[in-house]
Amino acid sequence: MSEKLKSRSPHHSHRSPNLLNVHRGHGPGTSHPHMGERLEQFFGRATSYTDEAVGHLYEPPLEDRIQAARSKNQEEFKHVVEEAHDEYEHFQGANKWASASSEQLAKDLKSSCIKGLTSERVIEARHEWGDNALEKEGTVSAWWLFLMQYKSPVMILLVVAAIVSLSIGKVVVGVAVLVITLWNASLATYMEKSASDALAKLASMAAPKCKVIRNGAEELIEATELVPGDLVLLSIGDRVPADIRLIDVNELLSNEALLTGESEDIRKQVKVNGEEAKEAFAKNMCFASTSVTNGSGRGLVVATGMHTQVGIIAQHLKAASQSEQLTPLQKSLNKFGLIQGAIAIAFLALIIVVAITTGYRDPSHPEDGRFFSILMVAVGFAVSAIPEGLPMVVTICLSLGCGAMVKRQAQVRKLPAVETLGSCTVVCSDKTGTLTEGKMTAVTLHAVSESEDPATPDAPPTEEFSFFPTKGFHPNGGIFAASELRKDGAKEAIMAKWDAGKWYDFENGGLVRDHGNPVNGKGKVRTIMMAASLNCYGTQLKMVEDGRWVTEGNMSEGALVVAAAKARIGIGEEDGQFASVTHHQAKYLRINALEVPFNSSRKMMVTIHQLHTPGVFEGMSLPDSSMTHVAIIKGGPDRVMPHVGSCPQDGTDKEGNPTYRLASQHTLKDQQRTDIERVNNDMAKNALRVLALAVRPLSTEDVSLLSTLDTADVRLDAILGRGTPLPSSKQSPHPSQPLALMGLFGSVDPPRTGVRDAIEECNGAGVRVIMITGDQKITASAIAREIGILKHEQGTEGAIMCEELRDKETGEHVEEGALDEITSRVNVFSRAQPEDKMAIVRSLQRQGGVVAMTGDGVNDAPALKAADIGTAMGIAGTDVAKGASDMVLLDDNFVTIVAACEEGRKIYANIQKFVTFLLGCCIGQIVYLTISILIRLPLPLEALQILFINVISNGPPAVALAVEPADEDIMKQPPRKKTASIITRPFAFFAILPHAVIQTCAVLLSLAFAMYLNTGYVTSDSVQTEPCRTYKVDGDDFAWPYFCECREFTWDKGWQIDIDYYDPNDSTLKHLDRAYIGTLEPGTLRPEDVPQVAEAYTKYENSNSEPLYNDDDKPRQPGQWAKPQNLATKEFYDDAVYTCVVRGTQRARTISFLTAVFCEIPRGYTVRSWLPIFAVFNRNKWLHIACGTSAALAILITLIPGVNYVFSTVTLSWWMYFYALGWAVLTVAGAELGPKPLYRWLQRRKKARDVAALEDKKAGTAV
């Protein structure tokens, strides 16, 4: 390996295994710079750390990003993979692993090919290697996240405004703006970090697990706990958790498209030759992040985490971690924000032009120059244009929604699914385990045999037996003839013994006979149950710690395993406990290499066993002693029956003992076949899932030939008589139908509690429910009618077998038009294969549907990815299915899907509510700020006040709306369109615009009246020119006031006059409120009318020879106000900038600020529902707390000294607070009595028209 690749990242600081002289000692470092530069150019610049902090938990998984990297530039990606493999080969010794013997490998890894690692070695390896984590994302620090908050245009603008304020001496304003930005950045950092941590905890719930053998026992552990040397068991559907050297395989296929780009599955083998061992991806190894698509195997872990092939590739593709991290909703909100910002900028440009041309100055800040006044106008508009709290609240809402879904057993893996759930129109669900309980219980067995008694040649070929009692997975019980069990008192007597704790003691003095009891001989029932148990070897029955019995493995096999236990097969007879190694498994050794595993296309499974005694299988005699093995076939009746040519025969020997044998020349009659089909249909109509069990005796020559066949499908064809003929076929009268049918099992899987109600709820919500199942059409239809997917009068109408979706000649799906016609009317699809699911999804999507699809198998992954909401099973689902899904059902329950749809609708509705709330407030601010400039009113709000409202005052109610309970009729509304805007027409025209208009009127009227009540003037022009008399000082542009006269209304005294006058005794400007009680015409107040002023003038004139001067710079006469001469001291300036005009304007603006706050806070109550406010007033306690907090904070910043100075507010008289509150009451009344009733009336009118149209349509159809 070149030197450039010897430097390792921090992820690779652990040492390599001491295996075959693998190179050691690579310390921490960095990846190759040239490759980093090349990949930087290849992928473009990295995304922001802020987006990463918020979004990295719901970005596409590593394998998806590697696939995306390949699609961008295949040649570049190929080169990167080659370099990564070179590093892998040198650092890990890949080729030596492939060529080393399994014994040597286990020795070097301090493991065992049989018992795996010891607990002590696991601890050592964990300490040496750490977690088996494919990719450790660098955690974004809170400080860095905090700093990244300042990237937004609003924050930049505010910081610039603060710097400008500080540079021109406006220290208080500058510091206040910085404090507000610090508060906003801190709050956003806390919220984003909290949301990120919450999502991380939810994501950890979906952590993959794997089966390992440690200390000789099988364990299920977290994949992250794997260490080199672990002995891992792989089976179909597993995601390979690490790089593994295989030591045993059974039809193991692996999809390595992630690494190779080749879609075809790779067949794995244990041994490879020298040349094959040098291949980049040797066939005796499985690699992390690839998937097992068929078969099973086991192997030793040789590399974990970032030392695996995919881990090193990921390290070289670090720059590829640039996936889109914004959900569609967030992107649409960003786009909406840009549009709103553009509109605001247009308004801002207009207002700035008007402000410049009219010489606008803020009457409450006469000391500010025109430039600074216009700058603050610009800042105010910028702040009002963008709802600063919106992204934060959206993130909080989505994360809270994910947490709420987990409480309802739905774990969201990809955040956009939260939004998509609200628009779901079709749910395609599996039946078993999702619509049903998934606790398959065998209830009946129809044993198939022909009577050898000449007296009964036409006897039915089946005899019905019942498994009883059926108490979940409890094995205690027996197998009784159905006719005997129907006798009076039979079931009651058995249940009495069962309740008394009796084990396998139910015959009750001959009232019924337990055919599962070995004391009664090895009859056909025990032989059938033995065959079933042998075939279901992969499913175990065990008792857990709390005393419950459970099955581990396949759901359908679990029913047969429990049924076999009732025949004392697979369970100890003395103590009733499950034996770890059962006698029958040792008696009939399974040939693992010849097994044909079950898959969705075969719908059958074959195991081959060596007979303990040639020619005899349990209680059944085979045609001759040359039969040394038996193939046991289990599958759907429609798949097994076409290959059945015979069945066992019942008879008696010379001594009168019953016999049970399989004759070589026996052939199943047509009538018998018809009777068997009838039994199958009857069971299916009763919603029983039917499995057929058949056998085929095999000779040693047959087994030898089968062992030469390469694949399971080829072996299956040979066993079924449709492929390579087996030697024993020559002796059969029906070589093309070599199977002997032993019995039909009927299992019940009752619908889950609440499923019928959930489906009814879906129908009311406009969500169509489709069942897609592998069951027979009759069984599927029966279940569908029971739970309400099909109507009872439909029969099997509305249900089809998926073979009808295909062209009979080509086997391909029919053309799109025909397929769409079928999927538009059919709600039950039986005998479905994974590719059928994909076709159904695409067809429904072509028709405009938003489709949720459930799946659990590895072959379901394409359909899950294609669906709008891929939904994997959390219990029965494979790792591959979960990895392809958007959502995981933690309880595998259909009711959870409906709950998730409801939760998704609620989340989206709440987002709509607080977006409407925040945008309505921002639009209202833009409108009344614009109008106030145009009509020459003072600005109702200053920049800091706007920022306070948008961030601090509006924030709590917006967050409270994020946890608003769902409306009662939320699942009675049709789904929203997926492409619908977050702001719909009803919200725009009946919520946002009316509020903007009403709030604008309220704020501007409140300001206008407040200006008049506190200054006697209304417009900014009049209040700046009429109340005050000013003079200029040489070299100073500031107009120094020496007398101001304002009118103020007080609650106790009515109208009064406030003045500011020049006191010549100490050369200051004195402020005198309530200088005159009553009203006078402006300009008629005289100094003599104010005792304090008259006294001051008299005092000066008596003690000074220099006269006082009037407005004309002439000696003052009685009735005239004194004017200073060229006086410009700091003390006088400080007084001059706080005249009655300033004081009155500040009071008026404080009132308009409170009016704005009080008008916006109740918006949280009016936007939450179209119902009247009182109807839903108390359903969200957090909204009460939030609104109360916002109102209290707004009032406090007018009361607390120092704080009110910062925010340019003042303490008001008590009645002024109620004055501001009164405008808010009028705003609420305007919303509740105007647009909302109008909207409800329009909705009732529309509903009435729809009902009338439907009635007319029905009437027309009837005619």
Automatic annotation (TrEMBL):
It is found in: Membrane. Its main location: membrane. One of its GO terms (biological process) is intracellular sodium ion homeostasis. Keywords: ATP-binding, Ion transport, Membrane, Nucleotide-binding, Translocase, Transmembrane, Transmembrane helix, Transport. It is a multi-pass membrane protein. The chain crosses the membrane at residues 154-183, 336-360, 372-405, 914-935, 987-1013, 1182-1202, 1214-1235. Residues 1-36 are annotated as: Disordered. Residues 96-170 form the Cation-transporting P-type ATPase N-terminal domain. One of its GO terms (cellular component) is plasma membrane. Pfam families: Cation_ATPase, Cation_ATPase_C, Cation_ATPase_N, E1-E2_ATPase. GO terms for molecular function: ATP binding; ATP hydrolysis activity; P-type sodium:potassium-exchanging transporter activity. Belongs to the cation transport ATPase (P-type) (TC 3.A.3) family. This is Cation-transporting P-type ATPase N-terminal domain-containing protein. It comes from Vitrella brassicaformis (strain CCMP3155). The lineage of its organism: Eukaryota, Sar, Alveolata, Colpodellida, Vitrellaceae.
